[in-house]
Every structure is written in C-alpha cells, then in structure tokens.
Design a protein that fits this description.
Number of domains: 1
CATH superfamily: Alpha/Beta hydrolase fold, catalytic domain
GO biological process, one term: jasmonic acid metabolic process
GO molecular function: methyl indole-3-acetate esterase activity; methyl jasmonate esterase activity; methyl salicylate esterase activity
CATH topology: Rossmann fold
Strand content: 15-25%
Strand order of the largest sheet: 2-1-3-4-8-9
Shape: globular
InterPro entries: AB_hydrolase_1 (IPR000073), AB_hydrolase_fold (IPR029058), MES/HNL (IPR045889)
Largest sheet: 6 strands, parallel
Organism: Cinnamomum micranthum f. kanehirae
Distance between the termini: 12 Å
Protein name: Methylesterase 17-like protein
CATH architecture: 3-Layer(aba) Sandwich
Number of strands: 9
CATH class: Alpha Beta
Helix content: 25-40%
C-alpha cells in the first residue's frame, strides 16, 4: 500500500483536455478539489476554445486543433510523467498524444469519450447548429449546441453551471475531425488507459460508450452516476475515480 501511495504522489500532475465547445474553464470544480488535496493540475484550452481566440473556421487539421496539448507535452521534463484526462471529444486528443508522447503519460483517463474514432457513433443528429462557411454544398465548418444544451450536456448539473456553460460554450471546429488518425495497437498499448463511463448520459449513451470500449478495451472501466458532464454534476465522485485511476496498475 505504501509503495502504491508513493507512486501516486510522484505522478500527481494531472492534465485536463476538454471536449467539444468547452474550454479549460469547465474543470474549475475538479481542479479546486484536486489542488486542495495537494495535486498539481493543468487545464488546457485547445485551439479556438476557451480563451484561445482563434477563429474555429480557420482550424483545418487535428494537429492544429491539438497544438496547445502537443506544445505542453513537448515542454515537459524528460523524466516527468502526467496523468492525462480527456472528456468527450477530448478522448481523441488523448489517443493522439499517446502516439506521440507515450513515454510521458502515466495513465490516460477517458471520460465518456471516443478513443479511436467518432465515425458512425449513434448520437443525436438533429440537435446541432451547423455553420457552412465554405458553402452549403460543403461539410459544416463548425458545430454548436445551444437550444438542447441543458437536455443533452448538463441535465443533472446544477442550474448555475448550466447557465455558466451557456455563456462560455463556443462553436467547435468540425473540419479538424476529417483527418483524425484512428490506428491503435503496438506501442499505443504500453500506456495504461482507464475509461470512466457516464451512466446517465443522454448525448453519448452508456450502450454507445460500451461500443467504444469494445473497439479498444482499456485496462479498467469505472462507472459514474452522472450526465455527460460529471465535472459539473458529480465532481466529488469524479475526483475519487481519478484518484483510483492514478493508482491503477
């Protein structure tokens, strides 16, 4: 037990990657709880998200969207390992990072997110606001969820958090998803992966998450009784699961 606790303390730098439309701001509860417990926490804004003012229409590749995370990982000390946590679409960023920076990742934790691909996911299709900046005959350049935000993202979250999100959510670039690499295996499996399944999720339903898990089985699967946004609806439970994932062998 002492050896396990010692290992957790050495690998107590958690790096958080938000999902579509969100930003580093969505982790404020989780960050506060973890820092109060003595852990180091970094919350990143992906390109054109949060306080990064890049126009999402200009983001044309997944590498460009992921650049803040890649820059962060590149600047880590050679002997430093982090716990990488990704929510929803942020899971794809984690997988991309595992490929490039696997030696710097202690554990990768996916929260209700795809690990390999978003193609053919059985999610609600008629709830998105789409912008076609390149013309109506071209694929949408951005996606946004406004009218159905509360119903599909935050239906169990405190109203004040849902209102905060409605003020801070930004359109997510959709062109960057066209070139996501989804290969797995090989050195990719050298990084331990933990999946946290949101059991009352209306956007990415539990049975859909089961399909994602079956595509690339992680080392461990944990359940949380939350909506799609456990950082709002169940922050204490989420922190406990993250601590469990950090100690996972």
């Amino acid at each position: 037990m002492e050896k396990q606790e010692e290992k957790v303390l050495k690998a107590s730098h958690l790096v958080f990657v938000h999902g579509a439309m969100h930003g580093a701001w969505c982790w404020y509860k989780v960050r506060s709880l973890l820092e109060s417990a003595g852990h180091k926490v970094s919350c990143l804004d992906m390109k054109s998200s949060g306080i990064d003012l890049s126009d999402p229409i200009t983001i044309s590749s997944f590498e460009e969207y992921n650049k803040p995370l890649f820059d962060f990982m590149s600047n880590l000390q050679d002997d430093e390992k982090v716990i990488l946590v990704g929510h929803s679409m942020g899971g794809l960023s984690l997988t991309h990072s595992i490929r490039e920076f696997g030696n710097k990742i202690h554990v990768a934790v996916y929260i209700c997110g795809p690990m390999l691909s978003i193609k053919n996911l059985d999610i609600p299709r008629n709830i998105w606001e789409k912008r076609h900046a390149l013309g109506l005959d071209k694929p949408p350049t951005t996606l946004m969820l406004k009218e159905f935000q509360r119903d599909f993202l935050h239906h169990l979250s405190p109203v004040e958090d849902s209102v905060l999100a409605s003020m801070l959510l930004r359109p997510t670039p959709s062109m960057e998803l066209k070139d996501v690499r989804v290969d797995d295996g090989g050195d990719m499996d050298k990084v331990k992966r933990v999946y946290i399944k949101t059991m009352k999720d209306r956007l990415l339903r539990p049975e859909v998450q089961d399909q994602l898990i079956q595509m690339w089985p992680p080392s461990k699967v944990l359940d949380i009784e939350s909506d799609h946004s456990p950082f709002f609806s169940a922050p204490n439970q989420l922190v406990n699961l993250l601590l469990e994932a950090m100690a996972h062998e």
